Amino acid sequence: MSEVSTATLIAEVRRLADALERLAGPPPAKNDWTAADCFVWVPAREFLQPVLRPNRVALKLIRGVDHVRDILHENTLRFAEGFAANNVLLWGARGMGKSSLVKAVHADVRAAGARLKLVEVHREDISSLPTLLDILKTSGFRVIVFCDDLSFDHDDTAYKSLKAALDGGIEGRPDNVLFYATSNRRHLLPRHMMENEQSTASNPSEAVEEKVSLSDRFGLWLGFHKCNQTDYLAMIDAYADHFGISDDRERLHHEALEWATTRGGRSGRVAWQYIQDLAGRLRKPLERDGYASVAPSP
Q1: Contact indicator for 241, 252 with CB cutoff of 8 Å
Q2: Do residues 233 and 175 both lie within one domain?
Q3: Nearest to 34 by CA among 130, 117, 112
Q4: CB of 246 within 8 A of CB of 252?
Q5: Which structural domain range is residue 158 located in?
Q6: N or C: which end of the chain has fewer CB atoms below 10 A?
Q7: 8 A C-beta contact, residue 75 and residue 86
Q8: pLDDT value at position 97?
Q9: Alpha-carbon distance 189 to 178, whole Å?
């Protein structure tokens, strides 16, 4: 075979090899559990992306939800210590600190020395849960899988993967994994969709049974409701004290209530947005005790 023919053949083989690699996609990434305490699941690479600076606030700053805070903290602590605990659905009013509470409780339990990791799964990646669980069960850590703002539409079948991961399948959920999810809907479905399926089904009582039963897989349902004025002002005071913003409480309360009126209601998110506005006007940085100057999640 001539040198020209050999070179051509080698080039063609390399071209085919490159094409096959592109079709196969990137190889699974190597996950480093020591890189961080919090991670985001990237299913395309089977990679746990470390989050070096989590978006969270201190647990002591979350006010007006004392009862559910204590329940979630106790459930998380038991799980971190290796004892029985429940999957948790945090549902209810917008802006009342559902996801902020999950992240704050995780940080608080971690601070006590627990080997506990938090892995966030985006809503659109729910169908990849079986792959994620295979990775988590051999991690050597206790892991909370967290999905924020979870809900399902009419033609969405991803909930089946979540149902199997929560409490189903022949293998079941790994002992070292727990699921926490937040949602504005207790049954994870819009009310109009449930009513529509009931009205058009031949057996209304069973029409939405499969989807509604998803919420039953969560052993704890923690409800969050709109806060009253007293709780709202307690949130304002907690932020003001923590960041050393203002000593004039009468003026602070007046402005905060006016701010809530312009936003159409009171909530933890509205309180934080007011504090951000006030701190900006006073040129006061919002960072202390290692927590980033970012707004709490809904």
Answers
A1: no
A2: no
A3: 117
A4: yes
A5: 38-224
A6: N
A7: yes
A8: 87
A9: 22
pLDDT at 289: 47
Cα-Cα-Cα-Cα torsion 266, 269, 271, 275, nearest 10 degrees, comes to -160
Which residues pair with residue 120 across a beta bridge? 40, 146
- Classify residue 124 by its DSSP letter: G
260 and 143: one domain?
Answer: no
Q: Is residue 274 part of a domain?
A: yes
- Based on the domain organization, do 214 and 145 belong to the same domain? yes
* Of residues 87 and 26, more confidently modeled: 87
| Residue 247, token pair as written in the block | 């000593």
Q: What is the mean pLDDT of the chain?
A: 82
Cβ(121)–Cβ(129) below 8 Å: yes
Residue with tokens 């600190």: 97
Number of domains in the chain: 2
Give me the pLDDT at residue 20, please: 67
Q: Residue range 176-192: average pLDDT?
A: 79
Q: Is 46 found in the same domain as 66?
A: yes
136 and 96 co-located in one domain: yes
Give yes or no: residues 264 and 153 share one domain.
no
pLDDT digits (tens, 9 = 90+) for 233-277: 999 999 999 888 877 899 999 999 999 999 888 999 999 999 999
What single-letter DSSP state applies at residue 118? E
Residue 292 has pLDDT above 60, yes or no: no
Cβ neighbours of residue 67 under 8 Å, at least 6 residues apart?
none
